[in-house]
Amino acid sequence: MLVLNEEQTRAALPFPELIEAIGTMFRSNCVMPVRHHHEMEVPGEAHAVMLLMPAWVPGDHIGVKILNLFPDNHLRSLPTIIGSYLLSSGKTGEMLAIVEGGELTARRTAATSALAAKYLARADAETMLMVGAGRLSLNLMQAHALARPLKRFLIWGRNSAKAEEAAREARAVGLNAMAAGNLADAAREADIISCATLSSEPLIRGEWLKPGAHLDLVGAFKPDMRESDDEAVRRSSVFVDTRAGAMKEGGDIVQPLANGVLTQNDIKAELADLARGRYPGRTSDDEITFFKSVGAALEDLAGAILAYRHASGQGSH
Asked: Where, if anywhere, are coiled coils annotated (predicted)?
């Protein structure tokens, strides 16, 4: 059985192939139960969460991701998310690989947003605003840069020093990035706004979105969290990675459904509909598009299979 650490997992998941693999998996007959979500008390600290995410393609591969999310780990200089992915054969049940879960999650999340942007962002998008300066920010910028001809990246974080540091990291890998001082000004400029935060209050206001903007909401993975306001929902064509996940877990969808700003019928399509060509995605240059990603187990399965094939020398096909 292969065991891949963080560095090996990163090397085995190049973004161009990962984006393609996730698109293929969304078109497949993957079986994906809604994930298990367990809140756990941590005495004297913020509650932790355990996520269990199973998925399988009949006769092909079986996988499950186990993630522990400890919000206060930053106080110990440890990652917020720690976990592993267990990949097995769908023919025999034999265990094939354990893939480092944090890196797999970060890369597949970014690749899924880039896949959505291929259908939903303007083809000529040049400026991206990254809201949040955590682990995901660099991944999201790199992946989006493959989906659209982005020339400029603005990074905003509550901690301006962290935003500056994220911009330095982005420049080190060849992205034209700078920290943004004013969130509203940066949002008004951006063709793509990607949010990856643990915010419980809306950060992006709908009034800031320019015609043709694409809003990519990746954080706020619980019903009481939110990164966008009602006006953003009102002004946008709304898409989700999966209806089952987003309508149950993502506060950016759950809260507007609850207060009547959004109905289930207002959700235009899920990513499988876009990937299979059942829905066209963006239909005009002025349309504002809104994509909510809460993470789907099939994305992890696609990534784990790709990582296993790379690391075992089988290539990506």
From this structure: none
